[in-house]
Amino acid sequence: MIRDLFQQKKTVFSLEVFPPKKNSAIDTVYNTLAGLRDIPADFISVTYGAGGSAAQKNKTGEIAGCIMREYHFEPMAHLTCVGSSKEGICQTLDELKALGIQNVLALRGDKNPDITGPMAFNYARDLTAFIKEREPGLHVAGACYPEGHGECDSLEEGISHLREKVAAGAEHLITQLFFDNDCFYAFMDRALAAGISVPIQAGIMPIISKNQIERIVTMCGASLPRRFVSLINRYADAPEALRDAGIAYATEQIIDLLANGARGIHLYTMNNMTTARRINDNIRSIVDSDR
Ligand code: FAD
Questions:
Q1: Domain segments of the chain: what residues?
Q2: What is the pTM of this model?
């Protein structure tokens, strides 16, 4: 279980994959997983498509089960309040239990006017408490936002809500992606000062295409350090150079985070096995030296 990993290791390194989009075959994610199998990841998480089709939603447990059975990684299934009724959540928890999945990332999900379905709880905190009461043995993780969350007025308020989520049972946290490590360090200081002492993994997304940066930044509002912007502008029209520069940037970010004592790295792979493998090659000796 993930809680044991944090007790056994100084640095926990994980990967995130997502179920195939609506019209893609399920095999595409299995091809990705086959390409990731040589990476000694401590766990692999699978996102939950709050806004996706029912078919896509149901794939999270199935893929997480396959990660464990076929690829022998510890799996973590994401689960959102948005788009889920309480009954639906109970059903999902039962499915995960039957599959032997012991780790859940409890999320609120993004509010979206196109999702007209139920919303079991208003906040991830309440979903966390519900899961811990129903399934006390499960490892429940939560999301956090070094640069704040769009719906929250201040960083302080965000930390106060995060403290409630941890009090409700979140045993470890994974950050939203960021490109400026100083934002992460400042967030860690605020969290510690607020008494949040659970392990926090830094979420890192390698930027390897121009489209990705435009989409991602609009979505999560991460601040862009000057040297990151120069890199994007300079190589925007040279896809291979941009990919290599993006991998180098993410590698440097990770090395700096590990050197400064981050308890874990969560790599948003975007189902790109080549990028994940290259980053793993770049950082492996450093991660291993921290064990
Ligand atoms: P919450 O912790 O509930 O916070 C949501 C907002 O409410 C915040 O602004 C918070 O400060 C505020 N808040 C919390 N408690 C209170 C309170 N008591 N009173 C008032 N305000 C409060 N989305 C998906 O759809 N599927 C995924 O698989 C997925 N995976 C993710 C993985 C990670 C690591 C991260 C960082 C995000 C992921 N997301 C995913 C996106 C996430 O669902 C959104 O960012 C969502 O808007 C917030 O989710 P949360 O769990 O952080 O919500």
A1: 2-286
A2: 0.96
CATH 3.20.20.220 is right for the domain spanning 2-286? yes
Cα angle 99-51-217, degrees, rounded to a multiple of 5: 110
Question: What is the model's pLDDT at position 33?
Answer: 95
Ligand 1 mean position, distance from CA 110 (Å)? 7
Nearest to 248 by CA among 207, 284, 220: 207
Helix axes 86-99, 54-69, angle to 10 degrees: 20
Q: Is the pLDDT of residue 243 over 60?
A: yes
Pocket test for ligand 1, best of 161, 187, 190, 219 (most atoms within 8 A of CB): 161
pLDDT tens-digit readout, 79-116: 999 988 999 999 999 999 999 999 999 999 988 777 77
Q: Using the mean position of ligand 1's atoms as its centre, give its distance from the Cα of residue 80 in Å.
A: 9
Between helix 155-168 and helix 181-193 the angle, nearest 10°, is: 60
Annotated catalytic residue 252: no
Q: What is the mean pLDDT of residues 45-58?
A: 70
Q: Which of 108, 110, 140, 162 to mutate to test the pocket of ligand 1 (most atoms within 8 A of CB)?
A: 108
pLDDT exceeds cutoff 50 at 55 = no
